[in-house]
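Render this sequence as a predicted structure.
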Amino acid sequence: MESIKQVSLQNLTDNFKDLTLQEGYIHVPDFRISESLTEPYRSNYYCIGFLKEGELVIHSNLIRHEVKSPAIVFADPVSIKNWEMPELPYKAESILISEDFLQEKIIENNILKGFSDLSGNGTFIVQLRKKEAGHIKSIFKIISSYTPPRSVFHKEIVHGAVYSLVNITASIRTEQGDITPSTNSLSMQFRKAVTEYATQQRELQFYADLLNIHPKYLSQIIRKETGRTPGKWIQHQIILEAKILLQKEEMSIGTIAEHLNFPDPSTFGKYFKKYSETNPTEYRNYIQGIQQYV
């Protein structure tokens, strides 16, 4: 959806003065979860994060991921993400990478796109053993050493470090086996369809027809495998999309209601309040208040 607000690398450098956009990437040596990251957002970059100490929780496309150190967190640009505010101390580092940066030197198959396909949700976690964590730490140290640039070959060096992160993570993931649900499973196909069509299609019959299955059977499988009814998945997705649009100040409530296929702003407002316990205007004011301190 083209009109949905995204967080870009440039946005981050504009709002966080201690971050510097290099040639297609940002190195975040001390990743902190701010209030703004607890609300849903999309990004126009890939993220490879390294949780060194503590625990974090990230939600991606309505799936809750508990991350325990040491671990790698990979997130693609497509998924809708938000973090839970941690109660205990943690240490984390990350590199945020544009698609152009990734594509510049890749000649073989695009590894990161394969990662996204494997994860199904666009986000996955890889637990690390002590030795593996040491390797990842060393690679991030190289990235840190050449950010900001300290060599005419700094970009090539950072490229090499990023691809090493990708290959090591892929190797560990292969060794551990694919612990995420199969991308061909019915529940995963349904969740992908909801992500794509929920703003325009809210009826179970549509998804049953799309997946070539009886609605009753689809409902039984989704409830059994996910603990939620199909209707709940659709409702949550619509609210996520609405929250992202409400962060876009230039869009009126009426325009958002139309974009989400509601007949009028009043119907949208009632729906939003029913499932988020606040009305669209209150949510927008809350977001604007958070952004003042970012």
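Summary. Residues 106-110, 113-120 have pLDDT under 50 and may be disordered. The chain is about 45% helix and 15% strand.
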